[in-house]
Amino acid sequence: MSATGIGAAVRRKEDFRFITGKGQYTDDVTRPGETRAVFVRSPHAHAKIKSIDAGEAKRMPGVIDVLTGADLAGDKIGNLICGWMVHSKDGSPMKMSPHPALAAGKVNHVGDAVAVVIAESVALGKDAAEKVKVEYEELPAVVDPAQAKSGPQIHDVAPKNTIYEWSLGDAKATEAAFAAAKHVTKLDFINNRLAPNAMEPRAALAEYDAGTDQLTLWNTSQNPHVARLVISAFVGIAPEHKLRVIAPDVGGGFGSKIFIYPEEVVCLWASRRVRRPVKWTSERTEAFLTDAHGRDHITHAELALDANGKILALRAHTIANLGAYMSTFSSSVPTYLYATLLSGQYNIPHIYCEVDAVYTNTVPVDAYRGAGRPEATFVVERLVEVAAREMGLEPPELRKRNFITSFPHQTPVIMAYDAGDYNASLKRAMELADVKGFGKRKREAARHGKLRGLGYSTYIEACGIAPSQAVGSLGAGVGLWESAEVRVNPTGSVEVLTGSHAHGQGHETTFAQLVSERLGIPFENVSIVHGDTDKVQFGMGTYGSRSGAVGMSAIVKALDKVEAKAKKVAAHMLEAAEGDIEFKDGKFTVAGTDKSAAWGDVALNAYIAHKFSGQELEPGLKETSFYDPTNFTFPAGCHICEIEIDRDTGKTEIVKWTAVDDFGTVINPMIVEGQVHGGIAQGVGQAMLEGVIYDKDGQLVTGSMMDYTMPRAHDLPAFKVETTETKAPSNPLGMKGCGEAGAIAAPAAVINAITDAIGTEQLAMPATANAVWSALQRATPRA
Ligand code: MCN
């Protein structure tokens, strides 16, 4: 392994600019004549708009225009749409509501955009926004997804507020397996609603060039090409390349920046109308009110087992709250990304899952780190842990009896797992966590009046989203491949244009490590270019932990082509047959001789056109590829959480965290470890601290950092993180994604640990001190 190649813990090259304040985020970009957009938002969860009077606001100093849904409709700007079709079990298509970028006649959640003020500054815009008089007729609201079907109807297209009633698996076979079971474990739980809270809030800056009829959008996007494709259609920009989307440095996304939001559509449209650049940057409270939230499931789940603890079947019914409108990918999260993972790491012969997706008067819900897979893991890992307790088995023992041990393994819920060694990660995690010494630690804690608990989460996820072949069999339409272009300059330095987009994952480092290793050139001589639709031809962007397995595989494919062409050039230079050229460590050699040419010489020669005159070889050294994997990758692992609880206050401290994950080939262990740390922190946040709360009228109670608790460093212990390795056969590097693992594994590990200590399974997330204390009042702690 070279010091900067595959497997090396290279420091992230992008961090210098980030930690020295040199990053260029959307809000840092300024354009001459820039104006600011300030949105007038609904204070009501559900109301008719009787009238909007913007007269006074329009006359205020510094106000350029005030635009409403009527203006939008007048300019024929269409509705935001959800991209993935899901059919109900009766075959009917999902009920997609209209979603105009500015409300048309009715608002459906607090924060719904009603009008926009375009002003010389944010301050002037805010003053004017207060003077926009909107007369509302309030309507009753529905907030609780359990009440959605009987609540006031939100959209004409969706009776009983039902978007779809979907199912997966064989209901009859599952029922028969339950009938034959010796033991059935039943659980009810809520997977709490989360606010994404990326460090950089969403922002958009749109500029219209009347000379060329060209629009440019700087945007906090995780997938600028998809944004261009979709937004150009909404805003009526044709041909599509008249819109350039640039996602410069993006300060975190966690999924929340892959969707098409009203604000960027409005900025583009407004800049074309007012003929000046229009910028909008979200404030934190605006972010709580408008960024798509995550999770929000109500689930009843059951596990059927035989007398020996062999799992016979699993069934689940979930109500998924999708909020007031369907967001870009929301339909797929509680279906294709959730129910398809309900087999966990286990050999479960029969699974049946029903998902009812509903509208409520809350902000839309869509993908958030893990997207469907944390919810699935929570179902499976809570059921397994509780079943073990109920049957008097050690939780790891029940897991071992049911682990899938031979691959490939076809689950009853579509996914075909390709490789893994679940026993290996469980065994190693138990060693690292010193499970054997737990009893002693528990007794010691008891002497100090504390309760100790140990919780496991042996999770699985499907990453590398989303191979066309697999997506086709899910009936979900388009697959999500990735592109790469490798440009070799005459000096031998390399620029890689990738369709992936980094917003914290360190691609500028790991992608350069791959190229450095493959071409045997210095890491510093490789630059990664991403996030600009005028530079990169097309790309699908970053989410679903796909940039390694899919994005880097596209680079491998392009590098293969580059190497093949470079060999032709070297053969010409060395006057040898092409088949005799070997390439290793940055050197082309004629096999069996000492004749060789260095990478840099070959690169230069590739550009000396006269050398090839009269030959078939074209000058230049640049190759493109599009890579569509044959399957998802299936990262899996074991997380063990150990907690200590103060009996008097319910205050719970995580005292130990052990994670052993299988990410296949690891490119950069330091980056991977960082990804796992971040994921665990978010998972712990969900389990113990975070939770979006709306009151019964649809007012957001947790609308600021004072009300919505994010995990801090002092909430977390020093993590013990290791990896095991089984290579993913579906991509040339054998990589599996690592970006979501922690967030997927952690909630179940935490709740399993706390319930182990307190002796009741009735504990809702977030397990705050108050919740734990209350649960303790109803329980007898386990000895
Ligand atoms: N990697 C590696 N070896 C592996 C797997 C990955 O070295 N076996 C490296 C990759 O090269 C990349 C990083 O680890 O530099 C993450 O790779 P991957 O798992 O492929 O995930 P993506 O790059 O596609 O990132 C998406 C993932 C998701 S889905 C969310 S949500 C998330 C996450 O990454 N959002 C993040 N991590 C985040 N980290 C930050 N800082 N900010 C976010 O918004």
Description:
- This is Xanthine dehydrogenase family protein molybdopterin-binding subunit.
- Keywords: Molybdenum, Oxidoreductase.
- This protein is of the alpha+beta class and 783 residues long.
- The protein has 19 helices and 28 strands.
- Helix 14 runs parallel beside helix 15 (547-574).
- Bound molecules: pterin cytosine dinucleotide.
- Pterin cytosine dinucleotide binds next to helix 14, helix 15 and helix 17.
What's the short version?
This protein has 783 residues and is of the alpha+beta class. It folds into 3 domains: 18-139 and 199-252 and 257-290, Aldehyde Oxidoreductase, domain 3 (Alpha-Beta Complex); 297-466 and 631-777, 2-Layer Sandwich (Aldehyde Oxidoreductase, domain 4), CATH 3.30.365.10; 480-627, Aldehyde Oxidoreductase, domain 4, CATH 3.30.365.10.
List the helices and strands and how they pair.
Elements: H1 15-19, E1 35-41, E2 47-53, H2 55-59, E3 63-68, H3 69-74, E4 106-107, E5 113-119, H4 122-130, E6 133-138, E7 162-169, H5 171-179, E8 183-191, E9 203-209, E10 214-219, H6 224-235, E11 243-246, H7 262-274, E12 278-281, H8 284-290, E13 297-305, E14 311-321, E15 350-358, H9 373-391, H10 395-402, E16 409-410, E17 416-417, H11 422-432, H12 438-447, E18 450-460, H13 468-474, E19 482-488, E20 494-498, H14 507-519, E21 526-529, H15 547-574, E22 581-584, E23 587-590, E24 596-598, H16 599-606, E25 622-627, E26 636-646, E27 652-662, H17 669-689, E28 719-724, H18 741-758, H19 769-777
Parallel strand pairs: 1-12, 10-11, 14-15, 20-21, 27-28
Antiparallel strand pairs: 1-5, 2-4, 2-6, 3-5, 7-15, 8-13, 9-10, 9-12, 13-14, 16-17, 18-26, 19-20, 19-25, 22-23, 23-24, 26-27
Helix pairs in contact: 9-10, 9-18, 14-15, 15-16, 17-18
The structure holds pterin cytosine dinucleotide (MCN).
